[in-house]
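Dear support,

I submitted the protein below through the web form. The confirmation email said the job was done, but the results page showed an empty box. After a refresh the structure appeared. I'm attaching both so you can tell me whether what I see now is the final result or a partial one.
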Amino acid sequence: MEALKTIKSGYYKNIQTAISSKISLKQAIQNCKTNAIITEIKAASPSLGNIRSNFNPVTIAETMQKSGAVGLSVLTEPTYFKGSLQTLIQARKAVSLPILMKDIIFTTEQIDAAANLGANVILLIQSIFDKGYGENDIFKTIEYAHNFGLEVLLETHTEVEFAKALKTNADLIGINNRNLDTLKTDLSVTRQILESQNKYSRIIVSESGIKNSGHIQFLRGCGADAFLVGSIIMLTNNVERKVEELVNAL
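What the results page shows now:
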């Protein structure tokens, strides 16, 4: 896979360590009195291409925190999302929110980087480990992350993947509403999975395709506890207003 070329090139080595920070995204979601919105910082995506030309991670992170985001997701994957580890370093120094390092994570080297950069959570994708692409299996990878004090958001796309995720010690389970083959989004994916599965008191994060207050209301009614929102926020000219709209959706 293309992402492995990045890993093998040493992209995650020789990094500058950011301010160490031990903050729980899980606890922040549990304590949230409004909608628990995890706002995402990214410059591009496979479905939209370049998203934002005026890209200042520090200003964006500070605005998201001010507007009530429960946490930040920072894209560090460079090939498809034009992310960088430097963006994570800048965001960590700018805000006190829990930060999710969002990448296509296969190796312990990447987890080391997340811990050294001050991330609090990493994203793991169930399907990647089901296909055997991981350096270790999903159980050992989660354990490795936990040993660094990192929480794990384990992303799923189907009922089968969700059922497998429930058998792990992942701190949060994500449901991605995007079909990775067609790149189309359908919010009913979250509904269908949660109707068919008992989430066993897990924190559920609905991801992708969220654009407005109505979407937040729908997903909350389906049983989602938190909502990861990226593109619609990065596309807007007024980040503060858009985040506040989602955070305060009734």
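Response: this is the final, complete result; the empty box was a page-load delay. The domain at 2-6+25-247 is CATH 3.20.20.70 (TIM Barrel).
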